[in-house]
Every structure is written in C-alpha cells, then in structure tokens.
Amino acid sequence: MPATPARRATPVRSLVRFAAFVAVLILGWILPIAAMRPAVGQPAAPAAPAAPERLDTCPGLVSRTSPRIVPAAVVPAALAPDQARVTYIGHSTFLIESPRQVRVATDYNDYVKPPVVPDIATMNRAHSTHYTLSPDPGIRFVLHGWRDDGKPAGHDISYQDVHVRSVATNIRDWAGGTARHGNSIFVIEVGTLCIAHLGHLHHTLTPQQVSEIGRVDVVLVPVDGSYTLDLEGMIEVIAALKAPLMIPMHFFSRYTLDRFLERVKSDYEIEFAETPTVVLSKTTLPAKPKFLVLPGR
C-alpha cells in the first residue's frame, strides 16, 4: 500500500529537529568562548599580579596579622608651611614632624621608640633610656648630646626645612661629681617655631646658656623633680626661657605629674589633651603661658 503523506513527512521533520538541536549545541559552545576573547583592536587585559609571599614586607605594617582598616580621620593631614606636628612617644621621646615630612626623634633610645625611623635622632647619656649605642641605620643624623673628650657637643645642622642645634649643659656623673658638657639642650627649628628639648637637665641655666638657647616657642620639660632638676629649679628654668607653651615629659607616673602641676597651676594655665599628638604654629600659641599635657609617661 502506498505511504500516506503524513508518514512521508516524518523523516523530514525529524531531520529538521536534529539540525536545530545540533545548531543549539554548536552555538552554546562557541558563544561563551567568543565572549572570553578580547574585542578586535583592544589589547588583552594584563594578568593580575601575584600576591606577595609575605605581607609583613609591605611598608607601614607593624605586625604579621591582616592589614587593619584605618579611618581616614586617623591619617595625618599635610602640614602648612608654618606648622609642626609634635607627638609624645613617652618618657623623654617626642616625634617632631615638619611640613616637608622631616622627622626628629628626641632622646632616641632602645626602650621607647617612635613608630617610624626618624631622619634626625637626638640623644643624651644620663641613662640608657635617653640614648642607644645601636641606632637604626636608616637614621640620617645621629646627634649625641655629649662628647667623649668632655667638650661641648656643638651640633648645628640643617636638613630640608629643619634646623637643629645644641646647647651644652653639665650633668651629674655616677660618682656624684659633675661631668661638664655631659648633656645638651636641643633647639629644633621647624615651620615658624623654635622647640627646645631640655634633655636630662641637672642644673639651672646660666645667662650665657639662656642667650645661646634664644627665643623659644615651645619647651619640652622634664618634671620628675628628682632624677633631673628639682621642682623649684625647673620652675626657674621655665621662667628664664619665657616660652608661651610648655609640654611636660619624664614624669613616670600621674602622681609625679600632678605634684609638678600643683606647684605651677597658680602661675600657668594647664590643659590636658586627649591625644598624644598636637599640631602647632605661631598663630596657635597661647596668649598666656600654658602647660599642655599630652598622654604619656
């Protein structure tokens, strides 16, 4: 019997369906590959850089843990040409930064150290907490406040926008006598400010020393009243220098600090800062002489 038209059409329909199925398979394979190829005329994207082997080799990391997220407000702002940033690290060590990012660390030692390597480090030799015999090799200028031959240290250097000079003072030696020129007061000129770090001062200043120090805007003052100069003597030094702003240091405990502040509060304004860092300029200096207490020890 001859085939009906419906049965003759069945192979054709099957062939069409099979062809469509094959086309879908081919397109499903080709299109994803084409999408991954770069467009004509555009260079292929560079491969992602390999991750470093050790995270602690990255600049600024202080530990081998994951990097911390630092709020934008914590990042130090750039300084104006007339400003200086002063951070109390502890004991007698301050980090002083200039508008051109020159860093000076005072009484640099192995125990209380700033978080960055300074460009300039000043030292005094009263105790090992005021100097080191193995300073970081990255420090450009290491300034000892003494000389082994007993002569004044006599530092006078300029680096970028910072000028540092020293004024020699005497110091008590371990035998109870006097070591001439064994300590230095360092005067740091930065921005438009003159900042004097008294070091481990053991006596009041002579008129010649006051003249050599000259006009200063900020004095970093040891206030322990025993290891350095006694309270009355230190108050005499402050009065002779006539600086508008004093920042206490070398006080070991809150008791020692309060004892000194109690003694001076009738003559000087006292302000307690919430953070150990302050940005100073000539225009922000107080009209009346003041002690600014930065958190530290």
TrEMBL record:
It comes from Rhodoplanes azumiensis. SUPFAM superfamilies: Metallo-hydrolase/oxidoreductase. It holds the Pfam family Lactamase_B_3. This is MBL fold metallo-hydrolase. InterPro entries: RibonucZ/Hydroxyglut_hydro. It comes from the Bacteria. Coiled coil: none annotated.
